[in-house]
Amino acid sequence: MIDAAAISLSVVVPVYNEEGNVGPLVREIVAALRSVTRFEIVYVDDCSTDRTLAALATLKAEVPELRVVRHLGNAGQSTATRNGVKAARGAWIATLDGDGQNDPADIPKLLARRDGAPSDVKMFAGWRVERKDSGSKRWASKWANAIRASMLKDDTPDTGCGIKLFEREAFLDLPYFDHMHRYLPALMQRAGWKTVSVPVNHRPRATGVSKYNNLNRALVGIRDLHGVAWLIARARRTTAEEI
User: Fold this and answer.
1) How far apart are CA 86 and CA 117, in angstroms?
2) CA nearest neighbour of 201 among 165, 163, 144, 166
3) Among 134, 118, 133, 209, which Cα is nearest to 167's?
4) Distance from the CA of 234 to the CA of which of 7, 30, 158, 226 falls in 20 to 30 A?
5) What are the two backbone dihedrals, phi and then psi, of residue 71, each rounded to the nearest 5 degrees?
6) Where exactly are the structural domains of the chain?
């Protein structure tokens, strides 16, 4: 049994139909963190239609750090991430994509960067310097990142990387909307916090298929990008004190 009060880090992993990836990724997370910090792993199953949930239930008997949250209806990655963060007991959150392309061995690197950073840096975002995706996906991401950077001025070369480290309280204070996970550095900056991009490893998908394609990302992204730009333009911040 894990002492909830002792947990300092929660690793949140949203998944949908990733039965072949959950076992290897959970074991990699454990190997990366057991000698580093007190942690828990919070998987959020987004109403998978394969045996993802059954695989996670089996893993719970093997991995005491593992918790599983189950969606009763498919809601998407942003909602799964947010529900995982809400369920988490650590003050800091590390996120990973459930497809195994993010490397859990990078989490200690992010923790080290956090420990040496000023207190107003609330997010450490992974930066996939050498992506292991198809040429079309790399091209689409490069194009999307360039447009996003020109509109949002978030100084983040790879906002779509799934591995991130951030303060739980700061995240839950952000405005919530579907697909918000693609704009977290800009939203953190809007809230008055600083963010840092950290080069991380990226790996080919070992099993399963991607849940996104370039067209649906582009169509949704255009609308979301204008919405986030509006949120940034309408932001108002000030300090307050009790008297």
Assistant:
1) 25
2) 163
3) 118
4) 158
5) -80, 140
6) 4-233
Provide the 10 A C-beta neighbour count for residue 168: 19
Long-range contacts of 145-152 (CB under 8 A, 24+ apart): 147/225, 148/183, 148/186, 148/225, 151/225, 151/229, 152/183, 152/186, 152/225, 152/228, 152/229, 152/232
SS3 percent helix, strand, coil of the chain, rounded to 5, is: 45, 20, 40
The predicted-structure confidence for 3-39, as pLDDT tens digits, reads as follows 878 999 999 999 999 999 999 999 999 999 999 999 9
pTM of the model: 0.90
Question: Using 50, 70 and 90 to split pLDDT, how confident is the model at 222?
Answer: confident
- CATH topology classification for 4-233: Spore Coat Polysaccharide Biosynthesis Protein SpsA; Chain A (3.90.550)
Pairing of strands 121-128, 164-167: antiparallel
- DSSP 8-state symbol, 176: P
